[in-house]
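Bit of a strange request maybe. I'm writing a small parser for C-alpha cell strings and I need a real example to test against, not something I typed by hand. Could someone generate the C-alpha cells for this chain?
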Amino acid sequence: MYFAALLARTEDGWEASDTELDDVETLSDLTDLAQEASVDEDTVLVYIEQEDAWFGILRVDGEEDPRIYVSDASAAARSSYGEILLTDELLGREPGAEDEIAALEELVDLDGTEDGDPDEAARPAGTAADRQAHPPSHPDSDSDAVPAGPIGELGILADFGVSEKDLLTLRTDALTEIADALGAAEVLEAVR
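Reply from user aminoacidic:
Good idea to test on real output. This should exercise your parser:
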C-alpha cells in the first residue's frame, strides 16, 4: 500500500494535497509535479511511503536541483515509486551504468554463454567441485547493489526543525511526525 502527499509552502503556511503518481515515471516527472505546485518558487515536499517498508522525501526549492532522502534504499529499490527516487547520483553510480549492465545481460546469459550458442548451452555445468570453486555471482553481491538503510540528504528538513537524528529515527508514522514539525498536521489530515 502506497501513500503520496505533496506539501507546498505558502506565505500563509503549508498547503497539502494527496498526490497521484500513476503518470510519474522519472525523477524529472516528479520534480515537475512539485514545481507546478510551488507558490512563488517556495519549498515543496513530496512524500512517498510504502506502508511499513520505506518512505522518501523529495524537496524542491524553486528551480534548484531536487534534494532526496530515502529511509531504506534496498526496500525502495524493490518498488517502482522507490526506483524513481534512487538516482544513479544518489547511489553513487556512474549515470547510465544500470542501463549498460542490462544491455550486456541481454547479450550474454548469466552462465556466460552467448544467446543461441547450442554447444555451450548443451555442455554440463561442471562438477560440484567446479561449481564450488567458481560459484555463480549473486546479484546482491554486485558492487552496484543498493545499500540497505537510509540514503540521501539527511539535512533535507533541518531548516524546518527535523534534525538528521530525528529523520533517522522516523519509522512507521513518519509523515505525521514530519507534518507536526512543519506545523502542517491539520492540512495534511484533511487530505489523508
